[in-house]
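Practice record 12: protein with flavin mononucleotide.
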Amino acid sequence: MVSEPMYDPARTYQDNFDNGPFGLFASPDVLTQTGDPQSTFLGHPVYLPFGIPAGPLLNGNFVKAALDKGYDIPVYKTVRTHRYPCHAWPNVLAVKVDGDLTTANNHLTTAPGYSQPLSITNSFGVPSFDPDFWQPDLASAVAHTHKGQVVVASFQGTLNEHGSAADYIADFALGARLLKETGVKILEVNLSCPNEGTANLLCFDTVRSREVVDAIKNEVGDLPLIIKCAYFADDAKLKQLIQSVGPYIQGISSINTISAEVRDAAGNQALPGEGRLWSGVCGASIKWAGLNMVARLARLRDELDLSYTITGVGGASNATDYLDFRSAGADAVMAATSVMWNPALASEIKSQVLDAVAQ
Ligand SMILES: Cc1cc2nc3c(=O)[nH]c(=O)nc-3n(C[C@H](O)[C@H](O)[C@H](O)COP(=O)(O)O)c2cc1C
């Protein structure tokens, strides 16, 4: 059983942006949380360290709805320092995955409808509006925060047509400064985006990732910085990244989507346009990878005597998954796909793992 989604895949991104959120997130109800928050996230008290990662919360209206429905750590979808277009519709399709999505099981077919256990492909291309729009919009979402909640803002840099690596890195620093000006309390840099100008993800390029982190930290000083990382198959590569950036960042959020080939039932490319035969898949079939990364990040934190906060992401869809991530070493847990079709998930988990929640 799934609920009416808060982001409607049948509509365009712009339509969702202008008219969403939908379903439960469109209702004015506010979850009442009583007593004092018993947890913290990067120094901020939260009732439950559970939230929505960068993606489904397209703008301030979505973030405000998430806060009202009891998501104590919502992330404002990744922004850029200038307007950037969205890929052509459709941007979200359900996919069939037998078991876990792995490199041995990544040739997928679309599913006719959205049902549990739910896995989807999402393909937006990280669209953005100008800071003139998102700075006041984010500031108003931050002002909407209730007791025991904190908003996170995600961003990434863009390589311009004639841009050098130095310009690309400077664009991350500019994004961080523009976000800091909004009064948001925590930044998240998306290192699981393409390392623009190369064929790889940024987090797989240790040297460039370190340059980006240094540039951001020089700009924002003590403002807590989370890095969003993809699933690493290679342990040595993960250790190299953590050794290089771990001392300078405050949090790591992992994982992002895992790439798969997606065709329709007739065997044709499912998402229209060049470069979209392979796209990112998220939801239940990647939970194994999210748990695996959390456990490895927790081990590395001990081994390297570091202190970053770990946010576990990937396929969490109920209280058991939340607890599985916490047991693996996550300080906080976030869910995107499952929350899109079950916007009541935060209150459901809270009613199972917290005492003092009045509905
Ligand atoms: C609709 C949608 C849009 C997303 N957009 C972004 C994004 O802009 N930036 C980002 O870092 N991750 C983005 N993600 C990835 C999620 O943050 C998350 O890492 C991934 O979906 C795995 O979590 P899940 O299995 O709970 O969906 C997006 C995910 C979804 C479903």
